[in-house]
Amino acid sequence: MLLHIVARGRIGRGPEAELVDRYVKRLAWPVKLTELPDTGGRMPAVEPGTRIVMLDETGEVLPSRGFAERLEKWRDGGVREARFLIGAADGFDDAQRAGADLLLSFGRATWPHLLARAMLAEQLWRATSILANHPYHREG
User: Fold this and answer.
1) Is a pLDDT exceeding 90 seen at residue 46?
2) For residue 6, what are the contacts with CB-CB under 8 A and spacing of at least 6?
3) Which of 15, 91, 101, 125 could form a disulfide with 51 if both were Cys (CB 3.0 to 4.6 A apart)?
4) pLDDT tens, 76-87?
5) What gap in Å lies between CA 116 and CA 7, rounded to an integer?
6) Looking at residue 98, what DSSP letter applies?
7) Is the predicted pLDDT of residue 95 greater than 60, yes or no?
8) Does the pTM exceed 0.85?
9) How far apart are CA 31 and CA 17, in angstroms?
10) Distances (CA, A) of 126 to 1, 18, 94
């Protein structure tokens, strides 16, 4: 299953970009990163078999194992792509949220989109590591 991160805004160079790169390179699953301008730009076409996950402060707070289980269920159910959307400064409107398969939150705090991108990359790496029975993850 392809893990596709579609983010508003350019990450450029810097510590956040290095952190994203570090975790993306560790992923054993196929991954794609797409950056869009803060406004406008064309969202890549959504193919059949795609699940849409929007990072949103109103979303579900999943523990790492729960997130891994969701990805596992989708993968084993034939989902071809899990697309993770990171919005611009104003996030997503109600109509956009309604079209998501999952609203995912990293807590009720507001996170800068560059840091949210790094946190997502880390959680994707952690989830795929859990599914591969990697001994790194520890339950807390």
Assistant:
1) yes
2) 34, 36, 43, 44, 83, 84, 85, 86
3) 101
4) 999 999 999 999
5) 10
6) H
7) yes
8) yes
9) 15
10) 16, 17, 30
| Ramachandran assignment for 108, one of left (phi > 0), alpha (psi -120 to 50 degrees), beta (any other) | alpha
Please give the single-letter amino acid code of residue 121: A
Cα first-last separation, the chain: 28
Helix (H, G, I), strand (E, B) or coil at 9: coil
**Amino acid code (one letter) for 89:** A
Q: Tell me the C-alpha to C-alpha distance, in Å, between residue 112 and each of 26, 64, 78, 117.
A: 23, 21, 33, 9
| 72: its two tokens | 């596992």
Q: How far is CA 97 from CA 22, 59, 89, 92, 116, in A?
A: 29, 9, 15, 6, 17
Structural tokens at position 30: 């196929």
* Residue 50 near residue 84 (C-beta atoms within 8 A): no
